[in-house]
TrEMBL record:
Residues 4-191 form the SGNH hydrolase-type esterase domain. CDD domains: SGNH_arylesterase_like (cd01839). This is SGNH/GDSL hydrolase family protein. Pfam families: Lipase_GDSL_2. Keywords: Hydrolase. The lineage of its organism: Bacteria, Bacillati, Actinomycetota, Actinomycetes, Propionibacteriales. GO terms for molecular function: hydrolase activity.
Length: 208
């Protein structure tokens, strides 16, 4: 799981974090294990992480930097799930959906070229498009001002990228929306919905 604050589990309107069991990766893990999949979901989530872009105010938010070593460290992996893109539309950037999708393409390529040990499998990749913004508001409102406009078409752009690169895709916006509190993150009930919605697809991707 390589992602940002939506997956890290920030509680909208606060700087606190949901517990693992409440976060959608934890819900997914529980759902998979309930189906006798016997898996462990590994989270590598960083607040503010972009696909491939730098944060001018905080270092280390470029998702491309070091991703090969992250894959190497946790290999062998059965599946890599990417859920990024939200922070590509912070107000200091002038990006559109195409830019973010190109960033995701670069991440997919980097994962496939990671320096894993000889004989270890190159993992399949599932890209999850984050739900569309709902008028960012509250303390993070200025950070994401206008994001609901600049991010228009992101899910479609990511799906096209996945089609071109032959990796799997899921649009979180088909099952949930952005937080009712801040219009950006996921509320606790939305984590539960998303985690449960991914169980079947992940089972299929992990099938031998």
């Amino acid at each position: 799981m390589y992602a940002d604050s939506l997956t890290w589990g920030i509680i909208p309107g606060t700087r606190r974090r949901l517990s693992f069991d409440e976060r959608w990766p934890g819900v997914l893990e529980a759902g998979l294990n309930a189906r006798d999949a016997r898996v462990r979901v590994i989270e590598d989530c960083l607040n503010g992480r972009r696909t491939v872009f730098e944060d001018p105010y905080k270092p280390g938010r470029n998702g491309l930097t070091g991703i090969g070593q992250v894959i190497e460290a946790h290999s062998p992996l059965d599946l890599v799930i990417l859920m990024l893109g939200t922070n590509d539309f912070q107000s200091m950037h002038r990006h559109n959906a195409w830019h973010s999708a190109q960033g995701m393409a670069a991440l997919v390529t980097a994962i496939r070229q990671a320096p894993i040990e000889p004989g270890m499998p190159v993992p399949p990749i599932l890209v999850v498009a984050p739900p569309m913004f709902d008028r960012p508001r509250g303390p993070i409102g200025p950070k994401f001002e206008g994001a609901q406009v600049s991010a228009a078409g992101l899910a479609d752009a990511l799906q096209a990228t996945c089609r071109d690169l032959h990796c799997s895709f899921f649009d979180a916006g088909t099952v949930t929306g952005a937080s009712k509190v801040d219009g950006v993150h996921l509320d606790a009930d939305q984590h539960a919905v998303l985690g449960q919605a991914l169980v079947e697809q992940v089972l299929d991707l992990m099938a031998p």
